[in-house]
């Protein structure tokens, strides 16, 4: 049992100055307040004391869920309480506004997704050649409209375009343009991120998880971030680096939703905002994988939206937004397939045989092991980058690494194409009528293919471990799928080879006796491998299975997919309980509580409570002047402070609120004495009455409470702190950061990337 | 703001004697304790004080979630802590046991579902005729193996079988056998329920919801209930009463899971049990609708499994069990269609037109209104039944009402078949190649059909309102779908008629100009109508949409389904916020907290706190003897009592535990004094030390806490009671029943069917 460090009360998320200077800060408090009052109207009489003042949140703080949810309910009620026709119309208008934003979010995300697909496809093809009748056509569009059998002459490789005829020159030109463009794409993406939107790098899912659980980080959702992340993502994917667009698309969706919220003036509620963000995140997953149900389940399982007090409403909004986004994508239909299913699995044998469980279980275990390995390598790479000179040269790092990636990729045939093409080809069953992808279906080359696939998987794993964490938008889903698909296909080929070599062996007795009839479907093994690998990396369960079967349409084979995800998660959990997002959250030390069960081994809250003699406390009986109080606040930059008067605990005051309140007044009359006690203020009105700022700490616990109960309360009630008292006397304090520390301190590299280092 | 009645501390769920005398009671406490100790093994040293003793739960009480979850974690840890190879093997064995039970549950539920389908089909067909070569074949099996166009002579109607040739005789014979068998089926179902398993009636979902939230009601899950509910359900459905098998199947699933749990000796944890029940309930929905994802979402949305501290594990178990159950059903394939989709929608126009939104919105609003009407009629019928002489004659009521239903059904052609057949025919588009269902596709009879459909819907609504609540197993899903489908089809026919009559009107300009091409798909209108009606009755959202599209396979049209569910829910909520299950829970007054947001209008806990002078308290300073204490317990049969010593609050003691503890000791030495104070017991060991029974009430609140926070804590933390104190002095008490009362008191007919009346 570690005890939190002495300075755990200190706000570990106070951002550096660059962060606070961000141009697109939350609007000023005054404006907010005015709007809120206008909305409250004549119903404001009903506002109880604890709802009187909107708390001030600095970037990096956590919201006060109880206050926010209370205020939202109050606003709702006041809408209904207005007199006359306004009482009828206002709720309907508010309602219409909410749903307009949701529908627009869905349509917007679907459009962005489609647009990104087109952009990526074009940029990717540009590395190999161009369309003769227009630079802005990709290969498929350029060659469309041809009859069957006709050769496409409109699309020319760069060597054709520059009329280079000798073989060596062709190879050199092609490879150098390929590498040069890859470097240019990746470099410009990194430069954009570095210059305009420092938060647009990486996947974004860890931050979204933290934000949804109450973290305040508005700069992460700014319009600039939206633009740069979307453009940078297209460039990064097209550069051929080992990354995917799925995770970042969730971030882009949330930025888009936040922009809409601001356009529609939904600024007054932090909880409301988070409900919209949850819906947008579902829609992001829905568009990324063509999987509306997967999106909803992702929000439920991975983003843990159950912390909202009305989760079925949140779930419903997420569902509607996801479906609208998916329908929009299908309607725009960027590739003219009019299908949502990205990697259609076809030609799979209708039934699977019992002996196939053996290779599948091996694959599943392998997925768990390699998933854990990827997580560890990735975390180690991130920590190494942070502590070495590379940290100072992020753009150079991206340029150099994209050059390396491009050079390696050009050599290994399966890596040369985009990962999504690789995956869809690996998922395809061999069909003589349809042509052969790089000789993958050539039965005489089975051993060579297996070797090549394993090499590809290995290289991809190493590349991904470094790439995920560089200063460019990067998702980990697609590379993981690609690694798993390579391994799965390899094992599938091996099984097929075995079965064809020994068709009469008793294990294969379930196969049809005719050796020309296919019994083993290596393409489906690739699906199993991909699921297993994803299970090992993300540790998702239900949402992962749903995403995989919506991604592939392999509904009939959901049972083996389920088994592989389950086994790979077990194996992975044996090697370290945390999925990759959890590890990143812990490394960046966001105030996010893992929703898992906590076992307290019989300890009590005593273990985490910071005893009263270690706390910085405001002593009301000393009757500080405003100036003294401001000095005190400057000296101790904690989240907040317990307030006591003599022995008696008065409550807890939030630093941001106190600073905001005193800010304007201290210049006028700095020598005026302050008090937090209502009794004192009532008797003597020379005191400045601060009691309205006081959170009266109505929820107090005794130190004998089991630790698990404390953790559970923080997890489920979204608390920021709990005061411990006995007989009215303050005995200690536990803040959310103490609990976060308690739950994450055993992770490898916890706080290694935290900004406060 | 109502205040709870004076006797709200009283246990309102203490069952009548018949209940306690139930044969299949939970095994005795002693056995339980022994098993628990054996399991704990050498790890029991680690057990903290608050885990020392298993609480005793009487039927009708609520479990102590905190204790149960703590004990489960302790057991888990102790499994790992065992020495040597046992420490390796025990967790794996435990794990294997859990998953064996889950897999068996899934397979079992799939099998039961398939078996019920076959039984219902056969019994239903028996009402019209029999197979010449064997009584135990249904019509389809009897006539299978015929060539196309061949007439089935093996299946004979009763008049053919008895060689009645004249028309009047035929009609009389057919109708009287039809009615007689219907009455016989329904009557025997009621008799079974009445005689062997009084809890096997009704749908069971309200009780499952209450049990999952912590209510103790083991008799409801007994093997007898399983058998009687399954057989009775088949008889009831076959009798042609207006009821469905979906809800009861969820109950049957839970009974089956409970049986397996007992066979595998999983008796020691109430939370563990509830996790299995949640998985079984998902699987029940999965089998009932052929909708594995719908099952999981149903558990999430309707059964509110988020109250478990590890909900993603619960969700995953539910998902696996659902899929296994669905796969089993598909494998057994009772009807030889090898499809999970029950009501396949085919031939729907690929795209829908904007003008169709108008009829769909009308349908959706109608669904909301009629859904609310059905809820109200049903509740009124239940209350009327309870307060009239009918309550004394449940079997007679069923017999009489099934005769009425059969007579009416025989007259109205659409009601004569089983509801599921009606629905699947209403969902089908007209296809000239496939024959016509009772002239539904005859364009010249459109007005007649509309009239007949509306009449059918009306009759069905009235029949259902009475049927749902009689002493037979009965679900409300299918009748609701049937009502909605009738209305939808009627409006679809009307729209089609309109479009065909005015093909050139501007509203219909989206339709192809050729009038022979179908533009409006009335079958899909029936789907919309069914969704809307279900939305109005159950007030489900995501799970309902998923169930409908898994039920019909109409994935392409999910957007209109979604809109109709949404609108019908809004309209319904305007007429009363509660779905039918919530109303029944409130009427039976189960201790179940609606998970909805609660708005406190600025009140504080003061509103619900029972002040200390109204409480029955054990005063430790009076040093009662065991005999006095037993007398006290006999006199005040509350759930539990706060214990104070002088001014100081010691804690809370549960009545059942105290009774169980004192039970054996009081006979030996009734005059021995007791104390709950550790200090006293330590000094003077003539006292019987009861401090281990004390819940030390570590969580105390002040009365100034906002009411919403108290409600929220009860909802999310699964508390049974909260003590209020100020400065160490007891100021009051709030129990779960106070909060349930607060949240449900405004419902119509709250507690109207409660057993304590």
From TrEMBL, chains A, B:
Protein topology in the membrane: Multi-pass membrane protein
CDD domains: ClC_3_like (cd03684)
Region (Disordered): 1-27
Main location: membrane
Gene3D superfamilies the UniProt entry points to: CBS-domain, Clc chloride channel
GO molecular function, one term: voltage-gated chloride channel activity
Keyword ATP-binding: no
Keyword field: Chloride, Ion transport, Membrane, Transmembrane, Transmembrane helix, Transport
Compartment annotation: Membrane
Compositionally biased intervals (Polar residues): 1-21
Any one GO cellular component localisation term in the record: early endosome
Pfam families: Voltage_CLC
UniProt cross-references to InterPro entries, sorted A to Z: CBS_dom_sf (IPR046342), Cl-channel_core (IPR014743), ClC (IPR001807)
Transmembrane segments: 92-116, 175-193, 214-241, 247-264, 276-300, 357-375, 395-417, 450-469, 476-494, 542-567
PANTHER family cross-referenced by the UniProt entry: CHLORIDE CHANNEL PROTEIN
Protein's recorded name: Chloride channel
